[in-house]
Specification:
mainly beta, nine-stranded antiparallel β-sheet, 45% strand, globular, single chain, 229 residues, Jelly Rolls, 2 helices
């Protein structure tokens, strides 16, 4: 079962033109900690060193992180079978930005120990196309005091007062993501693991379409000549 919500953002390009960009967000069933979307490239943090890294960190085939911190699996994070997870909230680490290797039509991650300080922003170039907060998760999945099935770490039963969910974000109407920004306010952490994304197939350049059209035209001409002969 998934819970879904359609989010739309109006993006302005200059003063005279605008385009409507949409994203569809859904949440996998409670306890699911990895993507069930086919064709994705995935990444976990188990092979990275712990602590805050001021340099660029390679995120496998997905992209590069700037401002990333990594912690050992425990109460607040670390998907099943993983020894570490990514986090924002260390001293000097209020933001971590993941720049994708290519334009993404889908991005997913396990959001653990969600709280109101957590903010995810997806960008298309310099334009923010989606902002999702820990408070948005409460609105969609329910509060822990109300008995939401998403509350508590499914791996160890700890942290029963915070939400743990796998988030799936799809670009619609041609929307593609170039980067993801994980931001956190003071006093808490924004924990995440099991990243997944899809780099959509490349669209042929206009010259490629022209060559294809020319080739088809030649084939049609030769077929017509053969028929007349």
């Amino acid at each position: 079962m998934k819970t879904s919500v359609l989010l739309s953002t109006l993006l302005f390009f200059g003063l005279a033109q605008f385009s409507l960009a949409s994203t569809t967000v859904n949440f996998s069933a409670a306890g699911v900690q990895s993507t069930d979307v086919s064709g994705t490239t995935t990444f976990s943090f188990s092979n990275l060193k712990t602590g805050y890294d001021t340099s660029t960190v390679d995120a496998g085939g997905i992209g590069q992180f700037g401002g990333l911190a990594v912690d050992n699996t425990g109460q607040y994070g670390g998907a099943a079978g993983h020894s570490k997870y990514g986090v924002v909230g260390y001293p000097g680490n209020g933001n971590a930005t993941l720049t994708f290797n290519g334009p993404a039509s889908y991005f997913g991650f396990w959001w653990s120990a969600a709280d109101a300080q957590n903010t995810l922003t997806l960008y298309s170039g310099n334009n923010a196309v989606l902002t999702l907060t820990g408070s948005d998760l409460v609105k969609s999945l329910g509060a822990c005091g109300a008995g939401s099935a998403y509350c508590g770490n499914p791996n160890n039963g700890m942290d029963p007062n915070e939400l743990f969910t796998y988030v799936n974000i799809f670009g619609t109407n041609g929307t593609q993501f170039s980067s993801a920004s994980f931001t956190n306010g003071p006093g808490t952490g924004f924990e995440f693991d099991n990243l997944a994304y899809i780099d959509p197939p490349a669209v042929p350049e206009p010259a490629t379409w022209s060559c294809l059209a020319l080739g088809l035209g030649v084939l049609a001409f030769l077929k017509l000549r053969a028929h007349r002969a």
